[in-house]
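ok trying again, last paste got cut off:
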Amino acid sequence: MRQGIKAFLLSAFVFPGLGQLYNQDRKKGVALVLGTNLLLGVVLLVGMALFSQEYLAVFYPRPLTWELVKILLSDTISHPLFWIPFGLLMAVWGFAMVDAARGGGRPNPAADQ
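nice, full thing came through this time. structure:
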């Protein structure tokens, strides 16, 4: 299997930045791994904040059941504030996939030193 395909698969299905690390582009790989972790944390934090805010505002006296969880998740996912960090996360993930595939066929000048 070509190096570009392996790098693409690592960045696409395992975690963004691993393809760059496989291609020995360490600075970009570490930056993508850290950036993706940061964005993933922001997505989870915003999602949990919206989820709990909706629960406290509308459903608080009632116990949390699966039916309420379904309603709250649909409200959370439809909120525009959730889509901003989620869209950034998907953009970084897509960039990591394409960059890893393109970087697999090039020789890395830093690896020659």
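cool. The first helix runs from residue 3 to 14. The chain has a mean pLDDT of 87.
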